[in-house]
Amino acid sequence: MVMYETIALQIEEGIATISLNRPPVNALNTRLFQELGQVAAELDADPAVRVVVITGSGDKAFAAGVDITEMKDLTPVGAYHFCKTARSAFVSIENMSKPTIAAVNGLALGGGCELALTCDFRLASETAKFALPEINLGIIPGGGATQRLPRLLGVARAKELLFLGEMIDANQAGQYGLVNKVVPVADLAQEAKALANKLAVKSAHALGVIKNSVNAGLNMSLSEALDFETKNFILVFASDDRREGIGAFMEKRKPVFTGK
Questions:
Q1: Rounded-to-10 torsion of CA 57, 134, 93, 34
Q2: Cβ neighbours for 116, distance < 8 A, ≥ 6 positions apart
Q3: What is the rounded distance in angstroms from the CA atom of residue 125 to the CA atom of residue 223?
Q4: Are 1 and 9 in contact (CB under 8 A)?
Q5: What PANTHER family is this protein classified in (predicted)?
Q6: pLDDT at residue 68, as a whole number
């Protein structure tokens, strides 16, 4: 197992938990982005890992944005390389074949919010807060928010958050559709584990195909996306999991999927 400087990794019963670990507020820097991309590739290639949870160490922040000490002296060329590194990490997480859950345990600002957007599910503690405050610094988000947020919330709501740069609490985030569920602080880890356990017993193969169908289809016309879905529907009929799932249904028992 690779040792990381800026994240902590725990794998238990098929569930991998990545904890951002740059106290006090888990600010995102180049090294952390590099390690996120690295761990995403490692976990995606590990057949024993069924679900990935991403959270922040400590109780203050999921990730309170990028490290301003690294950002303040960037030239345009430096900004390009910084953005490229962040984008690579976020795309690696977004494109993992396995379900991902962001367990947002505090501040999710700027790049922290953008990291949460790359995950399939977002659970938030009651004390979580979200913002894209880049506009207040005279810059714009560089980790995908201008593109992922409108696709998730719709253009009007996304522009509200991007243009104003104001912080919203967990309940507002839930109302906006930014998070799937808001839970008490003490229950966040357990709620994330419960959701991960539900996903872990599903067909890993089918989950990966569904995820790919949704993500890729967003960038296609409806007609193209429907054709893509049809191809993927045919693809899963060649899997062992399809035979097990339908066989178990006919035999009135719970299926035992192998991910093949």
A1: -70
A2: 54, 62, 102, 104, 108, 122, 130
A3: 39
A4: yes
A5: ENOYL-COA HYDRATASE, MITOCHONDRIAL, ENOYL-COA HYDRATASE-RELATED
A6: 87
Q: β-pairing, 168-169 with 129-131?
A: antiparallel
In the structure encoding, which two tokens stand for residue 161, read together? 């958050």
* Domains of the chain, CATH where assigned: 7-200 (3.90.226.10), 204-250 (1.10.12)
Q: Which amino acid is at 173?
A: A
Q: Which residues are part of the catalytic machinery?
A: 114, 134
What is the Cα–Cα distance from 135 to 112, expressed in whole angstroms? 15
Q: How far is the CA of 123 from the CAs of 48, 93, 148, 184, 231, in angstroms? A: 24, 17, 17, 10, 32
3-state secondary structure of 192: helix
Name the DSSP letter for residue 28: B
Q: Are 219 and 199 in contact (CB under 8 A)?
A: no
Distance CA 14, CA 47 (A): 9
pLDDT digits (tens, 9 = 90+) for 194-249: 999 999 999 999 999 999 999 999 999 999 999 999 999 999 999 998 898 889 88
**What is the rounded radius of gyration, in angstroms, for the C-alpha atoms of the chain?**
19
DSSP 8-state class, residue 46: -
Model confidence at 1: pLDDT above 70:
no
Residue 60 and residue 95 in contact, taking contact as beta carbons nearer than 8 Å: no
The answer, as to whether pTM is greater than 0.90, is yes
